[in-house]
Amino acid sequence: MNWVLLVALFFVTWWLALFIVLPFSLRTQDDDKDVTLGTVSSAPRGPHMLRAFLRATLVTVVVMGTFYGLTMGLGFSFDDIMRIMPDFSPNTHH
């Protein structure tokens, strides 16, 4: 696998993982019952982006490690997806 492709896939996967893990353990100002004047009550309370970045990185490392292991270690490719998936076409033979 080309290293440029691996870096591009890592970046796209990390970006998706960031938006998936972003709301985890988020405390809002409304949760703490302390809304700062001029902000909405659903605004985050305190810094949480570092945790979100670390969680997104961890999720991405696991996903990319699995992908790398399946493609390079076991030799699977996108062409193998049709052989792995069950056939959902309607069966005309009864």
Give a quick summary of the entry.
The chain has 94 residues and is mostly helical.
Note down, in words, how this protein is organized.
The chain is mainly α. The chain contains three helices and no strands. The model has no long low-confidence stretch (mean pLDDT 86).
Name some characteristics of this structure.
single chain; 94 residues; 3 helices; mainly alpha
Distance between the termini: 45 Å
Q: What oligomeric state do these chains adopt?
A: single chain
Please provide the ordered H/E string of secondary-structure elements. Answer: HHH
Give me the secondary-structure category: mainly alpha
Shape: elongated
Unreliable stretches covering 5 or more consecutive residues: none
Give the strand content: under 5%
Supply Rg: 21 Å
Total strand count, please? 0
Helix content: 40-55%
Number of helices: 3
Major sheet details: none
Mean pLDDT: 86
Itemize the secondary structure elements and their pairings.
Layout: H1 3-21, H2 49-73, H3 81-84
